[in-house]
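Reviewer 2 asked us to include a model.

Predict the structure of this chain.
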Amino acid sequence: MLSIVVAHSSNRVIGRDGALPWRLPSDLRRFRELTRGHAVLMGRRTFESLPDRFRPLPERRNLVLSGDRSYAPAGAEAFTALEDALAACARKCFVIGGEDTYRQALPLCERVYTTEIEAEVEGDAFFPEIGPDGWRCVECSERLHENDLAFTFRVYERARAAV
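Predicted model (structure tokens):
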């Protein structure tokens, strides 16, 4: 199953200058719990933005998309096409960013795990709208607060047409 894990602000920001524009330890904890033991798929810039001590992400199969056929990230597998990366991953896979990778993967995903931050944030990378027509919220946490930010964990599943 292909899923997305993302934290975004109310104006859809996911990053600024190659980094997260917030610090939410509970979001990082949730990310670890969801993805540990599974494959994580990300773009090259996302992979390179990971702190050295977490690159590659431990206890996960790291798959990296890059247009550069010679790109060989230490501890990870590189692919030039999303379809090739998915074909190489027979088990559960989580797409973890960035913007271009999310856009490519969203039409193929069955589930989206979000951390929705209730703030307008400046940034240069954005998460696409998933819209109410093709998705339904199946889980929603209580409103949480951390580091002066309010946020909610939600899980969306692709809506199925009635038979």
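The longest strand covers residues 149-158. The longest helix spans residues 25-35. We have added this to the supplementary material.
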